């Protein structure tokens, strides 16, 4: 990146890594995170933590992350380890092989999806339903330009295929509302990238499918990792920890078991607060639903949420 | 616009839910009513979010506790918590997307299945500023509202059109329903009497709704 001034003792403008659209400046939370010399994991420290063949001294790296987070210039690379995509004890060579295999696997899934819905991977995406609940293809002459370039022949009988297709427009409706204050998502290509990754994830993890909120979890991966397949695998590894929160059964969403844990914790450590919440009929702690579902992404600025996450992951 | 008042200072507290398909503008209706804000960059609602505002109805201060819900079908899993204790509902569709109007019936069924029969319901056709994209005629929506015995208004959160009216109307109607019965229950201003049949108005109320639709011939 050009035009970034490095100050050795902090004060560096981190916004230049994830620039905010000027007209949105007033709407986003103030950034509190600052890269601190000697505390934040820098690019130099990161590269120095690898042995010659690529073994990573993860303990040293983690200590630093816990003290001051990760410098934005290397966040994507470090997150791949934090999320468990790669074993720190592996070599450069081994990781390269895994990366290639994973990219191929992603490409194969993407092809499967493209064969059903050709707009996947086209750089465009849909925001209106393409099938009815009973599998009839919807051909709507009023579709806007976003929605052209797909066609579905006949009725969809395969249940897995139908379930997946029914969720695609919801992903689109959410993508157009995800982190739109970031300059990054002014690009329709980047929006489509987020849509593709979520669409393919919901194809692969059809047990959970797509649930609103996954867009907030996935978006940082798209921003941090340039390669779409690498971003997918980071998201997939994040979801290994979070997917139960998104599971919906009759009368229950997974995250509610965390809300009840939170409720028990508050009842134990601050019974007065708990009683107050009960009196307000907040006993189910639904006010914390969003906080836990999207890991405080809505409470903090983009940069600060990433900082919180990487401390949590480390 | 009615004065914004301190939170603690109210006579009645009513829970109102905002429901309808994803992306119809529920959150912007809420932010327009409670904070007089609108955002083109608004984010999807996760689970349930809340806001309150107090308004004056006749000589009382009525505080609305409004529950804004996620539109995705999957979130129906926490339906019972949404609807518990709700005395009013704004059922929102997007006048530019006909499918969101088609789904109103499904929403209404769910709403009625989970709430007291006295609940005050208003059908709301939002995004009425997008006149050239209008896909649901005012007549169709009005006919539906009459058939289903709900109130009806077309709104624009963007242009701040009818938003105040829609919420105020719902709160006023709730007030009338509650105060008709409140004489019996005395002390507790927040309580809606349970297990009693309260008539929340019929066709006359609906036809009194303003004619400011985007699709009027």
TrEMBL record, chain A:
Domain (Rab-GAP TBC) ranges: 69-314
PROSITE patterns: TBC_RABGAP
InterPro entries: Rab-GAP-TBC_dom, Rab-GAP_TBC_sf
Protein name in UniProt: Rab-GAP TBC domain-containing protein
Originating species: Citrus sinensis
Automatic annotation (TrEMBL), chain B:
A Pfam family per the record: Ras
Molecular function terms, GO-annotated: GTP binding; GTPase activity
Subcellular location: Endomembrane system
Entry-linked SUPFAM superfamilies: P-loop containing nucleoside triphosphate hydrolases
Protein origin, superkingdom: Eukaryota
Keyword entries, A-Z: GTP-binding, Lipoprotein, Membrane, Nucleotide-binding, Prenylation, Protein transport, Transport
Matching PANTHER family: DRAB11-RELATED (PTHR47979)
Protein name, UniProt field: Ras-related protein RABA1f
């Amino acid at each position: 990146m050009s035009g970034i001034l490095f100050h050795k003792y902090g004060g560096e403008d981190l916004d230049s890594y994830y620039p905010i659209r000027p007209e949105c400046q007033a709407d986003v939370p103030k950034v509190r995170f600052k890269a601190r010399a000697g505390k934040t994991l820098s690019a130099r420290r990161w590269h120095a933590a690898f042995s010659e063949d690529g073994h990573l001294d993860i303990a040293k790296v983690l200590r630093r992350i816990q003290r001051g987070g990760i410098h934005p210039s290397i966040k994507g690379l470090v997150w791949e380890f934090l999320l468990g995509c790669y074993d720190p004890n592996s070599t450069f060579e081994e990781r390269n092989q895994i990366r290639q295999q994973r990219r191929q696997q992603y490409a194969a899934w993407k092809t499967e999806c493209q064969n059903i819905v050709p707009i996947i991977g086209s750089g465009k995406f849909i925001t209106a339903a393409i099938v009815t609940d009973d599998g009839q293809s919807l051909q709507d002459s009023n579709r806007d330009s976003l929605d052209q370039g797909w066609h579905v022949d006949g009725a969809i009988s395969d249940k897995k295929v139908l379930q997946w297709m029914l969720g695609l427009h919801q992903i689109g409706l959410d993508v157009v509302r995800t982190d739109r204050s970031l300059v990054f998502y002014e690009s329709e290509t980047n929006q489509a990238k987020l849509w593709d990754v979520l669409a393919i994830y919901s194809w692969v993890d059809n047990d959970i499918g797509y649930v609103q909120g996954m867009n907030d979890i996935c978006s940082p991966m798209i921003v941090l990792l340039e390669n779409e397949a690498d971003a997918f695998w980071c998201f997939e590894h994040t979801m290994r920890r979070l997917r139960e929160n998104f599971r919906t059964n009759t009368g229950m969403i997974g995250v509610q078991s965390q809300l009840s844990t939170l409720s028990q914790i508050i009842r134990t450590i601050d019974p007065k607060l708990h009683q107050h919440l009960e009196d307000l009929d907040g006993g189910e702690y639904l006010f914390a639903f969003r906080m836990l579902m999207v890991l405080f992404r809505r409470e903090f600025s983009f940069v600060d949420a990433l900082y919180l996450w990487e401390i949590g992951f480390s | 616009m009615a004065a914004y008042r301190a939170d603690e200072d109210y006579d009645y507290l009513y829970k109102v839910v905002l429901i309808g398909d994803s992306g119809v503008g529920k959150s912007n209706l809420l932010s327009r009513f409670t904070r007089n804000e609108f955002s083109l960059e608004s984010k999807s609602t996760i689970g349930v979010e809340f806001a309150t505002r107090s308004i004056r109805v006749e000589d009382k201060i009525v505080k609305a506790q409004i529950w804004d819900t996620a539109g995705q079908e999957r979130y129906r899993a926490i339906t019972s918590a949404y609807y518990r204790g709700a005395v009013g509902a704004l059922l929102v569709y997007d006048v530019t997307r006909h499918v969101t109007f088609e789904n109103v019936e499904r929403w209404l069924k769910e709403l009625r299945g989970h709430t007291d029969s006295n609940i005050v319901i208003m059908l709301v056709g939002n995004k009425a500023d997008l006149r050239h994209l209008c896909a649901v005629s005012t007549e169709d929506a009005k006919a539906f509202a009459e058939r289903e015995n709900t109130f009806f208004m077309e709104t624009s959160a963007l242009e701040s059109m009818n938003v105040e009216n829609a919420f105020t109307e719902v709160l006023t109607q709730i007030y009338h329903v509650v105060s008709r019965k409140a004489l019996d229950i005395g002390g507790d201003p927040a309580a809606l009497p349970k297990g009693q049949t309260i008539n929340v108005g019929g066709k006359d109320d609906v036809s009194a709704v303003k004619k400011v639709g985007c699709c009027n011939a």
